């Protein structure tokens, strides 16, 4: 009995759809990526509900002065009796807001300038490339300190916008280089030959192939923005009335917490910074492994040689297994 052609095509399409679905979500199957996303998701949840779950007002004073961690105060108290756990929880919102907002602003500018200059070329492309070169050499942190000191009431949004506008140039350079290598590919030439508009080619032919690079640039900008926000608070540039992890470290350093043996004053905030930075780095490593097939194997691939022995492929090396000469 002959099988209808429609059934055969349907049977062949199902495995292809399953493979495409697995490839689409393969980015989230790596251990580094899952760990990074889980930790970042935890900090985002804390940033949203921090005011609700904090047991005390982070600025409220009490008679419990410089107490070590206990059942009443999980992370101990400051020299004014303020609960450090509440300060860390409430301060998470400022750190995540500045990091994500600056990352979004910088990524949008990097995509607009980098992809446009790489695809258009000529005088417009060279002009945009020169603009990114100018922003590339601007000292971002001193500029942030000057503007932050001039406008002390700007808040987290102003800091995020300044960081975003001063940290997009490197991502734009990377995206321009990738776009230059993509605009001469066969599928781009075919789309151009069929009469597709420039912006449709950029959005539907080139941009999907830059997704991983854009994501990596976004993560790198978030890391820089978080560290910049904490640095500004630590040196006392940003408003000290708004709690974040850098503000905690500022007060701990100004009151000589280390000399007084009050390790609980600065260790929780420092650990929070280290854990968030590690999570963002793991997410960035996961993106790199997803983009690079050589890194994706992580040195786990093994090949059986002509001599019958199993050879382990190492990252950074491409082993060549030659055949043994026979007499």
TrEMBL record:
Gene3D superfamilies associated with the record: MetI-like
Phylogenetic classification of the source organism: Bacteria, Bacillati, Actinomycetota, Actinomycetes, Pseudonocardiales
Domain ABC transmembrane type-1 as annotated: residue spans: 96-284
Membrane topology, as annotated: Multi-pass membrane protein
Identification of the protein by name: ABC transporter permease
Family according to the record: Belongs to the binding-protein-dependent transport system permease family.
Keyword Transmembrane: yes
Keyword Oxidoreductase tagged: no
Keywords per UniProt: Cell membrane, Membrane, Transmembrane, Transmembrane helix, Transport
Compartment annotation: Cell membrane
Annotated organism of origin: Amycolatopsis plumensis
Top-level lineage group: Bacteria
Membrane-traversing stretches: 33-54, 95-116, 128-151, 157-175, 210-235, 263-287
PANTHER family linked to this entry: D,D-DIPEPTIDE TRANSPORT SYSTEM PERMEASE PROTEIN DDPC-RELATED (PTHR43386:SF1), OLIGOPEPTIDE TRANSPORT SYSTEM PERMEASE PROTEIN APPC (PTHR43386)
InterPro entries: BP-dependent_transpt_permease, MetI-like, MetI-like_sf, OppC_N
Signal peptide from the UniProt entry: none
């Amino acid at each position: 009995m002959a099988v209808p052609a429609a059934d055969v095509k349907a049977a062949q399409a199902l495995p292809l759809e399953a493979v495409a679905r697995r490839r689409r979500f393969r980015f989230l199957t790596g251990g580094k990526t899952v760990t990074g996303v889980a930790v970042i998701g935890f900090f985002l949840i804390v940033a949203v509900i921090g005011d609700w779950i904090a047991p005390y007002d982070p600025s409220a004073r009490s008679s419990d002065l410089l107490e070590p961690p206990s059942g009443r105060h999980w992370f101990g108290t400051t020299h004014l009796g303020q609960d450090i756990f509440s300060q860390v929880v409430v301060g998470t919102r400022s750190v995540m807001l500045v990091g994500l907002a600056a990352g979004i602003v910088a990524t949008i500018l990097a995509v607009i300038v980098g992809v446009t200059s790489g695809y258009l070329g000529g005088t417009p492309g060279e002009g945009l490339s020169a603009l990114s070169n100018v922003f590339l050499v601007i000292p971002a942190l001193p500029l942030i300190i000057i503007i932050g000191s001039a406008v002390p009431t700007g808040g987290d949004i102003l800091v995020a916008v300044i960081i975003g506008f001063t940290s997009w140039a490197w991502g734009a350079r990377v995206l321009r280089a990738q776009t230059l290598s993509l605009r001469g590919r066969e599928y781009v030439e075919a789309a151009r030959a069929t009469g597709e508009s420039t912006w449709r080619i950029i959005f539907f032919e080139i941009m999907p192939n830059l997704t991983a690079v854009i994501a990596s640039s976004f993560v790198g900008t978030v890391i820089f923005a978080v560290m910049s926000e904490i640095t500004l608070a630590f040196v006392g540039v940003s408003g000290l009335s708004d709690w974040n992890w850098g503000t905690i470290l500022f007060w701990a350093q100004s009151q000589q917490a280390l000399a007084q043996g009050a390790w609980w004053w600065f260790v929780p905030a420092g650990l929070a910074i280290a854990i968030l930075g590690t999570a963002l780095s793991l997410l960035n490593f996961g993106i790199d492994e997803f983009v690079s097939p050589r890194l994706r194997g992580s040195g786990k691939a093994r090949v059986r040689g002509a001599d019958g022995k199993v050879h382990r492929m190492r990252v950074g090396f491409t082993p060549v297994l030659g055949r043994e000469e026979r007499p």
